[in-house]
Design goal:
Layout lengths: L3 E11 L4 E7 L11 E8 L2 E8 L8 E7 L7 H4 L7 E5 L16 E7 L4 H6 L3 H6 L2 E8 L8 H7 L7 H7 E7 L10 H7 L1 H6 L9 E6 L2 H13 L15 E4 L6
Parallel strand pairs: 7-8, 7-10, 8-9, 10-11
Antiparallel strand pairs: 1-2, 1-6, 2-5, 3-4, 3-6
């Protein structure tokens, strides 16, 4: 199929029994905005079986990185989890997606709100210098069930602040707030609960979200997206971007269902 590239798996990392990430080669012709996704897949019975995956690597890297759950009976993930270096994988030539910095009105603070593998697009966006140039603070909130699901935590806290090009911006502007719901951790609770109670804002030392100062990007489970969309609109007064190319106070990625 002419709309797909065939790439090679370079590396696979298993975070735990339910989460893994992998890197692939990147066709030189693939251009994307940080925060976008592509369709990736495998040949199954002679036909490509494709699913939407956010690109976790920034657009200036010469490889692609993806972050995935393992679903034992999932048509694609049950196969993807057995990938190894050297395997072939199909990747669409046309990236798309709604998590675009250009679709946010100017403001002081940018909240990136993620659950589970919804972290993936924000991994590319926190490596986007423009995010730090446009906002005084970038707050990455990652909600998971168990501590072992806090993938990339060491990368975010240990490696990124020492990036030779924009590490100083990261140290000055990025706030990482991981939270866990099903076992003890320094931050506990659902993102919605932590926002409604004000604990999130107290912990990070910023005022409650308001339409003048704050913008948000959402990626996660359908239930999380529904709850946060309702909360940001009705409780915090933010307006969603109505469509691509029309800026709002927050943007949502609805392309993913966790299976």
């Amino acid at each position: 199929m002419s709309n797909l590239n065939t790439e090679r798996v370079l590396d696979v990392h298993h975070w735990n029994d339910s989460l893994f990430s992998f890197k692939t080669t990147r066709d030189p012709g693939l251009r994307f905005e940080n925060g976008q996704f592509v369709m990736i897949g495998l040949e199954v019975e002679g036909r490509p079986l494709m699913r939407a995956y956010s690109i976790a690597s920034p657009n200036y890297e010469d490889h692609l990185e993806f972050y995935s759950i393992k679903v034992q009976n999932g048509p694609l993930t049950s196969r993807l989890q057995h990938l190894k270096a050297g395997d072939s994988i199909r990747i669409s030539k046309k990236p798309t997606g709604t998590l675009l910095l250009d679709d946010l009105r100017p403001a002081r603070h940018l909240y990136m709100l993620a659950t589970g593998t919804g972290l993936a697009p924000f991994l590319s966006l926190i490596q986007e210098p423009q995010a730090y140039e446009r906002f005084d603070k970038v707050i990455l909130v990652h909600g998971v069930r168990y501590v072992s699901e806090l993938a990339y935590a060491d990368f975010i806290t240990q490696q990124l602040p020492h990036n030779e090009f924009f590490g100083e911006l990261v140290r000055d502007k990025l706030i990482y707030y991981p939270t866990v719901t099903r076992e003890p951790f320094r931050n506990q609770g659902r993102i919605t609960e932590l926002m409604r109670s004000g604990k999130l804002f107290d912990d990070i030392g910023l005022p409650r979200i308001n339409p003048q100062d704050d913008r948000a990007m959402l990626c996660g489970s359908p239930a999380m997206l529904d709850d946060l969309t309702d909360m940001l609109g009705n409780e915090f007064g933010l307006q969603v971007s109505p469509r691509l190319g029309e800026p709002g106070d927050f943007v949502i990625e609805r392309a993913f269902v966790e299976k």
